[in-house]
Amino acid sequence: MVASGIFRLTSAQHQIQANRERARMVEAFCATWKLTDSQNFDEYMKALGVGFATRQVGNVTKPTVIISQEGDKVVIRTQSTFKNTEISFHLGEEFDETTADDRNCKSVVSLDGDKLVHVQKWDGKETNFVREIKDGKMVMTLTVGDVVAVRHYEKA
Asked: What GO molecular-function term can you cite, just one (predicted)?
């Protein structure tokens, strides 16, 4: 009985350590980010099925992305002159998301090493965003099918 009590304590300590590590990794993303550069975003939006008028606005809009932790949830707010969105979620848990282009998705955001991976699924389709910090900047790689776009952000 003592051995199992020790195991539980060790397991609980391991869980606490894992939670702290996840919080530390997410903390690296917690900031206000301003879009500075975008490559292949129009092709990415086309592959998503975004209409011409919305793509034109999307191509010239420079959103601000605010990533924060509120309790045990991560919050990502995207603000622009076009539209504001906000998602709040627990890492690794599916949630409902309505995107800036009005897609209703089932989404999951998780940590993969030092990357924040966001997967959206809707109507039998899937896209993913991989956010990572490189040289103090956030790089977001967006993929749908074989189309890849990259967006660069700097701290505001």
From this structure: fatty acid binding
Query: What is the C-alpha separation between 79 and 109, in angstroms, rounded?
Result: 19
Residue 89 structure tokens: 């979620």
Q: CB neighbours of 73 closer than 8 A, spacing ≥ 6?
A: 88, 89, 90
Question: In terms of Cα–Cα distance, which of 149, 102, 146 is closest to 126?
Answer: 146
Longest Cα–Cα distance in the chain: 67
Q: Tokens 């040289």 identify what position? A: 135
Element containing residue 150 per DSSP (H, E): strand 147-155
Q: Which residues contact 88 (CB under 8 A, 6 or more apart)?
A: 70, 73, 74, 75, 95
With left for phi above 0 and alpha for psi between -120 and 50, is residue 136 left, alpha or beta? left
- Tell me the per-residue pLDDT of 61-78, one tens digit each, with 9 for 90 and over: 999 999 999 988 999 999
